Amino acid sequence: MERGMRAVGGEDGEAMEREFEAKLRLQQPLPGGVAGGKAVQRTNSIAFRAPQEQFTIKDFELGKVFGVGSYSQVVRARKKDTGNVYALKIMDKKFIAKENKVSYVKMERIVLDQLDHPGIIRLCFTFQDTHSLYMALECCEGGELFDQITKKGYLSEDEACFYAAEVVDALEYIHGVGLIHRDIKPENLLLTSDGHIKIADFGSVKPTRDSQLTVLPNSSNEKACTFVGTAAYVPPEVLNSCPATFANDLWALGCTLYQMLSGSSPFKDASEWLIFQRIITRDLKFPEFFSHEARDLIDKLLDTDPSKRPGAGPDGYASVKKHPFFNGVDWKNLRKAPAPRLVLDHDNGADYDSQDATWNLGGAPSAHQHDGNAGATSSSETQSHISRLALIDSFDSRWKEFLEPGEVIVMISKLKKLQKLTNRKVQLILTDKPKLLCMDPSKMTAKANIIWSHSPSELSIQVANSSHFKICTHKKVISFEDAKQQAWQWKKAIEGLQHH
Ligand SMILES: Nc1ncnc2c1ncn2[C@@H]1O[C@H](COP(=O)(O)OP(=O)(O)OP(=O)(O)O)[C@@H](O)[C@H]1O
């Protein structure tokens, strides 16, 4: 292990490249795999459908950053000669090796290569240079379903039925080829520009023993009982160390459908440990406005007995598809059906251009520009909203170690810190001390030092629209994007503490 890491992580660029080529080797491309209708065996000699090209990053014109994952960033990239646009997933080789993510990268590359379904992100080609691996993916200009839910608050039953049906259709295919996705959640359901779903993020998949896919040797045994995925969507049997089954994804589908209809996931709490307690005891409450059909389907998908979940029984997906919640769905023509309207960033009256990260701050915004949020509410309403947020907007108890005894969190959110070349997921925390912490949630370290001041000339908040704001100190300006559109609440909360 140590030796392998040194070879990859060392200064010798050529050695690094050789190491990765050996790990992600391409043989002569063959038609085949599931996409070609031919089941192939587990082997070390992998024939890729999406070719490994000799391109360089200079062959592309790079646009906006779609997002940043734990070991990659995804950028809009136009191939200069063909004009074709891709979502280019860029991964730093040293970082992947250091973070032990090689198996995730390999798995995603090999699996995506063989999947062929309109509801799954397509891998077009790959290339690499000394420092980075590049995966050119089909572009999803509509962003994440998660963002649509947060922008709309929650979805109508018609909208949720449309999206859930497309997920069911893609999951039926994924399970049909013997794969368990293991990380189904609204963040991994991307939307095309015309509003159709594509499932992404295949780094955590697990092939079953009789999978038709070509996989790396032993990958169906690997991580058999380990917890992968995301706390809020993990089924109880995984917490009890049972091996992964297709039913894991059906539980996550139930959580996702619940989130579409209510705006938040069904098992929510202040820490992962508390979330797990709720999952194990199936502490599930339905909002009153859920229809009987929606409630019944979610209730069945969230059955603690995995074999009873619709889709996991002997009649397969028929029992999901014929559920009354999906009445009227034309399963054969899903992709031809008109999709729900997408709420885009500029629908909020945004003056923010994410393409070149420029701001038009102008004068003070009027109430209607606030999107009906804090700007339209009184300050006491805002304060109570803020303290409610601190409770609801779940925070990990690990953050407590950064607080002094008696110090209380006033507001906390996962945000994107916008930078010139890349965006980073950060946790912004405001305490009653007052103190502003901008933390790296994966490393639990400070990401930016924000020096508190009661003087607006030394610390000020500029809001561009409900999802974009800047914190300005005399030393620096930090730009944030808040998918939950609480930019005005952040301003009110910080200014409220400055006035005390
Ligand atoms: N094909 C795509 N089109 C548009 N945006 C994409 C595409 N693929 C990924 N993204 C965006 O880029 C972000 C980063 O994606 P990536 O696959 O690197 O990591 P992730 O799935 O978010 O996180 P992790 O790897 O930590 O699980 C995603 O949040 C998603 O919003």
Automatic annotation (TrEMBL):
Report the enzyme's class at the first EC level. Answer: transferase
User: Pfam families attached here?
Assistant: PH_3, Pkinase
Query: Which InterPro entries has this protein been placed in?
Result: Kinase-like_dom_sf, PDK1-typ_PH, PDPK1, PH-like_dom_sf, Prot_kinase_dom, Ser/Thr_kinase_AS, Ser_Thr_kinase_AGC
Protein name per UniProt: non-specific serine/threonine protein kinase
Q: Which GO terms describe its cellular component?
A: cytoplasm; membrane
User: Where does the record place it?
Assistant: Cytoplasm; Membrane
**Segments of this protein annotated with the region Disordered:** 355-381
Reactions catalysed, semicolon-separated, are: L-seryl-[protein] + ATP = O-phospho-L-seryl-[protein] + ADP + H(+); L-threonyl-[protein] + ATP = O-phospho-L-threonyl-[protein] + ADP + H(+)
Transmembrane segments in this chain: where? none
Q: How does it sit in the membrane?
A: Peripheral membrane protein
Q: Gene3D superfamilies, from UniProt?
A: Phosphorylase Kinase, domain 1 (3.30.200.20), Pleckstrin-homology domain (PH domain)/Phosphotyrosine-binding domain (PTB) (2.30.29.30), Transferase(Phosphotransferase) domain 1 (1.10.510.10)
Task: Establish whether keyword DNA-binding is in the entry.
Answer: no
Name the UniProt key words of this record, in alphabetical order. Answer: ATP-binding, Cytoplasm, Kinase, Membrane, Nucleotide-binding, Phosphoprotein, Serine/threonine-protein kinase, Transferase
E.C. numbers: 2.7.11.1
Q: Kindly list the biological process annotations in GO that this record carries.
A: intracellular signal transduction
Q: Give the originating organism.
A: Ensete ventricosum (Abyssinian banana)
Q: Member of which family?
A: Belongs to the protein kinase superfamily. AGC Ser/Thr protein kinase family. PDPK1 subfamily.
Question: GO molecular function terms here?
Answer: ATP binding; protein serine/threonine kinase activity
Q: Where is the Protein kinase domain?
A: 60-326
